[in-house]
Design goal:
- The structure is a single chain.
- By secondary structure, the chain is α+β, with helices and mostly antiparallel strands.
- Helix content is 34%, strand content 36%.
- It folds into 2 domains: 48 residues; 77 residues.
- Strands 5-4-3-6-7 form a 5-stranded antiparallel sheet.
Length: 137
């Protein structure tokens, strides 16, 4: 005997396929909503951890901004920029690095070509842009 759904006869196999389709759709929807939040949280935790590590072991120096270029990307309406820095640290010759960072609109005036900014550098890898932090007020 076939169950009757909305006046239509549906076989057991058809009902099974409908249930699987609904469950799969729900799983895909939940994954599409949850996964971005997971990755954003994980990225935020990694950034915080890197900043804490750099603050603990970093050597303070200063850098002159040699070049600044807008990448065209915005994160929360804040520009993402490619920046070239000449870094000066105690007991080291000056050197240049290129780094891509997101700058708050409120701090953008501090990040202009020719400006001198404070930096923290992990001396274990001073040429690695990820190991250089720009300290803005």
């Amino acid at each position: 005997m076939d169950p009757n759904l909305f006046g239509m006869a549906i076989s057991g196999g058809t009902l099974f396929i409908i249930c699987i389709s609904v469950v799969c759709s729900l799983v895909i929807t939940v994954a599409a909503i949850a996964l971005p939040f997971y990755f954003i949280r994980k990225n935020s935790e990694n950034n915080r951890k890197r900043a804490e590590e750099l603050a603990a072991v970093g050597t303070r120096g200063e850098a002159t901004i040699l070049a600044l270029q807008d990448t065209g990307m915005r994160i929360n309406d804040n520009p993402r920029v490619a920046i070239t820095l000449e870094i000066r640290l105690p007991n080291m010759p000056p050197y240049q690095i290129q780094k891509t960072i997101t700058i708050s609109i409120l701090q953008l005036a501090q990040v202009q070509v020719g400006a001198v900014v404070a930096v923290l550098v992990d001396m274990a890898a001073p040429n690695n842009p990820d190991k250089v932090g720009i300290l803005l007020r």
